[in-house]
Design a protein that fits this description.
The protein has 205 residues and is mostly beta strands. The chain has five helices and ten strands, in the order αββαββαββαβαβββ. The protein has helices at residues 4-9, 43-47, 73-78, 122-127, 149-153; strands at 13-20, 27-31, 51-57, 64-70, 88-93, 112-121, 132-134, 156-163, 182-190, 193-203. The radius of gyration is 16 Å and the shape is globular. It starts with a helix and ends with a strand.
Length: 205
Amino acid sequence: MASYQSLLIDRTESILYKAVEEKTPLISGWIGGNPPLCFDNCLELKDHNYTFYLTLQNPFHQEQMISIFIPDYETYLNYDIYPECAIKVFEHPFVEQSNLSFLRTPFMQEQQYIVKTKICDTNEAIKERSLIKFGGTPDLIQNKAFYYEALHNDGYKFLFQINENGYPDNLIKGNYPFSFGSLYIYAKITSEKFSNPLAGFWQFS
């Protein structure tokens, strides 16, 4: 019988996550607040006006994390699709949150914790409200091939998406960073593993 990991990669199942205020032993990451401490000395991010967005524990290898940083709005508005998408994605060892705040994003009130809610069929997952849908097939707001054809041609496949309709009500200060849309992360996916995650594109209606 196939493992849930292979089912996720084979696009038949998805893991869903939500954001909560209270820290529990089940947290899989966080959104907003300070980045993981391994980015404390990353002056390149600071010098190019990047701020921390979220970090998610790799559900296949819990000693690994995926962290996302976004630049100023005009930059990622103009560079929004692979291979020029300006949003940065890093895979790194699991570390605690930094106490330094110079990469904290200005558009979030306070950090929230990310927790897994369920594993379900990818078609069912599309009907559920979630912050993150990991694995399965993408739920595209605009199903137009120019968003993903270059990714597919270079061997990248859908890994997960972040849905702004899954934000808690008290998380965002001001405008939603992706205009109430979704951010789509792709990776090189082989048998039961993935590597080189990157931001494929973002969309809004």
